[in-house]
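A reminder from the course coordinator: this example appears on the midterm review sheet, so study it carefully.

Given structure:
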């Protein structure tokens, strides 16, 4: 829909005011054709297999790479950002091996729920003011929010591939409003990373084969969240006590010195998720897991994958007192949990204790993947 310059100005003033009222920390506008380099970069990411088991990325590549393919009627894209910066360096918790480190973004309510309702309110005001139609997206549709945010001027994609803002560092949630209304686009931001490679050097698993390129298959966030199977052995020690996601590359960014801690209670960490004890998390059955993580994004991965992660952290803890709890999980109904418990016990028990346990347990195991875990761990022990 065509709008005059004065109408665009009034509409933009409305968008800015409503964004502030809704608690967003930044808002800017771009056009659907503003990310011409994104399709080739996305195609290269998929061709290299860097998306791992995230098949939905490859399946939606055309709509993801070109916003007007997703919705042909879109004329302007409003990108909104909400600061979720922590009040401390989250990497400090990695020294407390009896505790689980949860990524900052997941320490409270699911940000999709926090943001989507507010975006819909703003979108409704746009329609009431200018007519036309709108669509709202928060990370759950094939929309490349980060390139769009860069094109809109909210920040730039850093060498860790995440958005970096001069005002908020690397701690921003993004959402978009697609509208048929015509708005004057903002100027794109330029890259301010320079020669810095702090984020690349901070990655425990070397998930960045080159600046601005991420191999998700090596990323701890992918391994602990998207990966549905056992954690590959080469990454288990490097995961440390990270039980859901990883903030290392984000936290290492020097631009964070300009960021403020999130002001909203809905985005600040729940007290019981700041430094949860591994010993308590390991006791969660499915019902307790669902209750404890009600409203949290962690709930989406399910109890079995989460306990798998906690078991890897337990194996890295060096805390032999956890062996009793871990041993009880050898009888868990989930093969994924049983396999992770085997590895954890191989680290928590003496070689003799573990060998005696394995001698009887491996024959009783009827799952091929779990039996393979027993045999592999025994083989590793024999080598060392």
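Designed residues:
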């Amino acid at each position: 829909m065509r709008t005059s310059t004065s109408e665009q100005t009034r509409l933009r003033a409305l968008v800015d005011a409503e964004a502030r009222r809704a608690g967003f920390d930044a808002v800017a506008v771009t056009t659907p054709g503003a990310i011409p380099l994104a399709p080739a970069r996305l195609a290269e990411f998929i061709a290299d297999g860097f998306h791992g088991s995230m098949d939905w990325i490859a399946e939606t590549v055309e709509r993801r790479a070109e916003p007007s393919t997703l919705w042909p009627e879109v004329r302007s894209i409003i990108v909104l950002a909400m600061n979720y910066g922590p009040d401390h360096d989250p990497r400090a918790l990695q020294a407390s091996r009896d505790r689980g480190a949860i990524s900052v973004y997941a320490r409270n309510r699911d940000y999709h729920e926090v943001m989507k309702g507010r975006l819909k309110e703003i979108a409704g005001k746009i329609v009431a003011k200018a007519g036309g139609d709108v669509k709202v997206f928060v990370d759950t549709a094939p929309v490349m929010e980060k390139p769009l945010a860069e094109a809109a001027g909210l920040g730039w994609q850093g060498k860790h591939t995440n958005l970096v803002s001069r005002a908020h560092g690397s701690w921003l949630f993004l959402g978009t409003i697609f509208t048929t209304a015509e708005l004057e686009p903002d100027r794109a931001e330029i890259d301010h990373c320079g020669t810095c490679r702090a984020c690349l050097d901070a990655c425990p698993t070397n998930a960045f084969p080159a600046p601005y390129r991420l191999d998700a298959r090596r990323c701890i966030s992918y391994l602990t969240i998207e990966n549905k199977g056992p954690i590959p052995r080469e990454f288990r020690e490097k995961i440390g006590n990270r039980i859901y996601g990883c903030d290392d590359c984000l936290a290492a960014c020097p631009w964070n010195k300009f960021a403020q801690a999130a002001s909203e209670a809905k985005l600040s960490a729940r007290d019981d998720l700041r430094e949860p004890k591994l010993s308590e998390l390991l006791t969660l059955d499915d019902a307790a897991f669902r209750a404890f993580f009600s409203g949290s994004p962690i709930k989406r991965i399910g109890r079995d994958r989460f306990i798998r992660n906690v078991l890897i952290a337990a194996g890295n803890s060096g805390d032999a007192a956890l062996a009793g709890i871990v041993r009880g999980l050898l009888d868990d109904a989930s093969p994924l949990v049983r396999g992770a418990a085997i590895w954890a016990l191989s680290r928590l028990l003496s070689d003799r204790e573990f060998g005696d346990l394995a001698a009887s347990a491996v024959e009783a195991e009827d799952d091929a993947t779990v039996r393979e875990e027993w045999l592999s761990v025994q083989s590793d022990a024999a080598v060392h």
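The chain has a mean pLDDT of 94. The first strand starts at residue 26 and ends at 30.
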